[in-house]
Structure formats: structure tokens, C-alpha cells
Amino acid sequence: MLADASIVPAFIRLCGATFGHGCAMGLQVTLPETLVVGKGCFFATGNILTSVDVDRGEFKVPCVTRMSDHTFLGNHNHLPQGLPEGSFCGVGTWLPERPTEPHYSYFGNPAMKFKRLSSQAAGKTNQGPEPASCLARFWHHFSTSVLDVFLYRGVQGMVTGAAFVVSRTSVPDITSVWQVFEVLAIYLVFSLGSWFIFSVLLGNMLFNGKAPRSNAYYSTTVTRWFTALTAQQRVFKLPFQTAGSCWQAPILRLLGAKIGRRFFCMNELVLVDAPFTDIGDDVTVDYDGQVRCHSFEDFRLKFTHYKIGNGATIMTGASVAMCDAGDGSTLRPGSLTWKGSNLVPGGTYEGAPAAAVGDVEHGNQCSQLLYQL
Question: Which positions, given as ranges, span the membrane (predicted)?
Fold first, then answer.
């Protein structure tokens, strides 16, 4: 329910975690009593910050998860032991052991290690969000923690209540099967109407392809993006599933995406940033496949237009993140691209970060030869 609310650190602190000041994060998978977070950290949603292990009926917590000062996480990373100061993790990174050197970046599974670019360029680690006025900070907290958390749900409840009143007024007594369908139709109309008003009209008004490409954390672009996602993906969702049907492409077009002909997808939330996505003809996206066009880099939200070419295939659990996919390219199951690593036309890629299949096989052969030596 809290999702990207600014009160998430305070909420997790109340549950038993230890936090420094100046932290911002979405909801995490964690055991709060075993989480220690330093100051000036940023964690996107969906990270696993716990060492909990459940094996053959035994619940074990081998260690405390320690996230040092100024650590920065993307989505869906698994860090059971934590990170040293100034570290960065991209998306889908797994680090079973805590690194010893500070100010490094990690990406993939197994994780690649490289010098953190921000500290290398500026000579220091990012110290947190850019300075903002008191009014900007107030609106950020009010929008994400009050409007997004309570107002939308209140409006949703009012829509349901209005549907109830109208159905009871129109059909005071149900004496036939047709009256049952009449009541269901009333609820469906209210549900579709609220989805169209809040997810399509309001969502496109708040967040569209004209959004600035780089935005400070306390800017109104960030709060508008949070609000639009809350409406579209969490509160005012369609009353029926469209994944795998001919209805999905028209629905995504209403949300701002450019979708070609014969698009087939088995994932309801395939586009994180629909207004910045251009999908060609005959594209296939399997279960849990996803296309992402945004990144949080040193407390700045950045958008870029990306294109999925004609005939491209994104297989089960794969993510095309911050790059283009050429015509006829294939991203194999569970693979993840990284920013700027475009998929060439006709190429097949796998791994995290994704590499051309020929390069992956050559790397595996070299590893086997080295092991034999």
C-alpha cells in the first residue's frame, strides 16, 4: 500500500530497523530487526535486504544486513549481508557476501564490479538529493505519503459506494437472472469509468512523453510520476485482465505507448514507462517480461525513449532496461540488459547483464579451459 511513499523509512524504522537520516526508499523485502541502514541512502522498490533462510522447516537468520552510508539500489537486488559505503547496485543483482571495498558499482548475476561512475567523475560519492525549497519538500512528502496512499483509496471507496447506491436504487429487489446481470453491469460501468478518468485521463495529464529527461528527486515530475503509477498499477486498474488478448495493445496505447500490429504479451504490467516506449510489429513478450525506460541515478530520475523493433522476442522473466532492441532480436529467459547495451537486429542475448549468445558460449569455454589448467 505504501509503495513509493516518503514515509516508508519511518514505517520500517517503527517495525524495528535502524536508519540514518536522509534516506529515501520504496517498500523492501526485509526482516526489520536485522536491517541497519546508514545515512543518505536510496533504495528503489522490491529489493531483498535480509539474510533469512528457510530450509526444511527451519527459519534461520545468519547475519544482520548492513547498508552503509550513501548506498544506492535499483530494483529487485538481493543483498543478504549488505553493502559498504558509497556502493551502487543496478537491477537484479545478487551479492551473497558483503564486498569489502567502498565506492564500487555492481550489476548482474553473477555481479560485475566496476568503479562507481559518479564518484570517479566528481571525486566524491553522491551525498543525497539536490537542495530543494521547503515548499518542494513539503509537496513531495504530502503527495507521496498522503495523496497517493489515502486520497486515491478514498476515491476508490467512494466509487464503489456510488455503484452500490445506484444498483440498489435501480434494482431494489432481484427477482430474475437479468437483474443480476444489470447489477453487475452497473458495477462494471463505474469501474471502467473510474479507470478511464484516473488512469487514462489523469495519468496522461500527470505523466506523458513530454516529461523532462532528467529530474531532481524533489521535483514535481517525480511526484507526478509516482501518482500516475499509483493510479494505473495499484488503485484504478482495469476490472479484467487483458494480457494475452487482442485488447492489451489498445489499452497500452491509451496509456501513451506506441504499439505496432500483432503485439502479443502475457504480462499485464509489461511497460513501466508507457509514454516513452515504442514497440514495433509482431513483438512477443512472455510471462514476466518487461520494458523499462527510466533510471534513478544519484537521486535523479531520468527518462529516455526506447524502441523494441519488429519481430523482437522478450522471453520469460527477461527485461529490456534502458536500451533499444533491434528487429528480430531475442532476449532469453531471466536475462537483463543494462543501460545503453542495445540489442542488434537478429541477435540472441542472455545473462545479466545480457550478452550475445556467441560471446557467452566463448566465455564459458574459456572458463572451462582455465579450470582444467
Answer: 184-207
Model confidence band, residue 125 (pLDDT cutoffs 50, 70, 90): low
Rounded mean pLDDT, 145-152: 90
Cell of 42: 536510496
Residues β-bridged to residue 35:
65
Average pLDDT of 189-213? 94
Q: Give the ranges where the chain is alpha helix by DSSP (H).
A: 8-14, 117-122, 134-142, 152-170, 177-194, 203-206, 220-229, 248-254, 357-372
Q: In the 8-state DSSP scheme, what is residue 131? A: P
Closest CA to 309 of 278, 350, 263: 278
Around Cβ 330, how many Cβ atoms within 10 Å?
20
Q: How far apart are CA 77 and CA 281, in angstroms?
A: 32
User: Average model confidence (pLDDT) for the chain?
Assistant: 88
Q: Helix or strand or coil: residue 169?
A: helix
pLDDT in tens, 236-254: 988 888 998 999 999 999 9
Helix axes 177-194, 152-170, angle to 10 degrees: 150
Does residue 361 have a pLDDT over 60? no
Angle between helices 134-142 and 220-229 (to 10 degrees): 0
- CA distance linking residue 280 with residue 274, whole number of Å: 14
State how far the Cα of 132 lies from the Cα of 298, in Å rounded to an integer. Answer: 15
